[in-house]
Amino acid sequence: MPNEPGPLEPEPHYPTARTVADVERNLAAVRDRIDGAARRVDRDPDEVRLLPVSKTVPEDRIRLAVAAGATLLGENKVQEALRKHRALANLPVAWSVIGHLQTNKAKDVASFAAEFQALDRLRVAEALDRRLQAAGRRLDVHVQVNTSAEDSKFGLPPEELPAFLAALSHYSALRVRGLMTLALLTPDTDRIRACFRLLRTLRDRARESDPDLIGPGELSMGMSGDYEIAVEEGATCVRVGQAIFGARATPSQYYWPEQTDRPTA
């Protein structure tokens, strides 16, 4: 039997990473905690991908992260991601767009992103597919699901997921990799776990009904404040920013409009 999941530890202070050594140390610390969480529930730590999130991080400090070994970085806002992509085009780094997307920004995402983790509307899927087809590209996507049932959050209602996945099969430029969610904003670890468990259950049901629609069935869930819980509940990708780069001056709701000011990615 798996070991019992560990408790959520108090939220740490996130000092600013100002050198390559700082970023290397923070990446190693987060990776160690991911590995520990995986082993607590008898999972292989290699199943979990760490996605460093560089939102609000200036370009000079992003260069430190690339020097520290980061090859894929997550950004919430398309405008910011595109600006950084252009400014850092000489670096071996790709970009994952992890925030809500409006259809008028689909052209930008289709032009440069390596993956898009917040797909929740067919209008966006159609716009992305059309732009990707024109560019001769394909794009890895995760479907965002609202597992907390909060009206303020983006993401599909869970009951709409099967039909949405079936509809996505018509867009050949989109490669569905799995699902993404944001947990409740609460100190109640049981309620956080419930969000992550629901996403895992939805993934498992999709695999049973039509595995071709869910791709490898990845689960992108967990950020700086709750990624260990997410790993214990089956995450295959955790999106971590502040624990790597340091606390942000910009309020979280600027990047996650549905969130309050608890540290997120």
Automatic annotation (TrEMBL):
<protein>
    <recommendedName>
        <fullName>Pyridoxal phosphate homeostasis protein</fullName>
    </recommendedName>
</protein>
<dbReference type="Pfam" id="PF01168">
    <property type="entry name" value="Ala_racemase_N"/>
</dbReference>
<comment type="similarity">
    <text>Belongs to the pyridoxal phosphate-binding protein YggS/PROSC family.</text>
</comment>
<dbReference type="InterPro" id="IPR029066">
    <property type="entry name" value="PLP-binding_barrel"/>
</dbReference>
<dbReference type="GO" id="GO:0030170">
    <property type="term" value="F:pyridoxal phosphate binding"/>
</dbReference>
<comment type="function">
    <text>Pyridoxal 5'-phosphate (PLP)-binding protein, which is involved in PLP homeostasis.</text>
</comment>
<dbReference type="InterPro" id="IPR011078">
    <property type="entry name" value="PyrdxlP_homeostasis"/>
</dbReference>
<keyword id="KW-0663">Pyridoxal phosphate</keyword>
<feature type="modified residue" description="N6-(pyridoxal phosphate)lysine">
    <location>
        <position position="55"/>
    </location>
</feature>
<dbReference type="InterPro" id="IPR001608">
    <property type="entry name" value="Ala_racemase_N"/>
</dbReference>
<feature type="domain" description="Alanine racemase N-terminal">
    <location>
        <begin position="26"/>
        <end position="248"/>
    </location>
</feature>
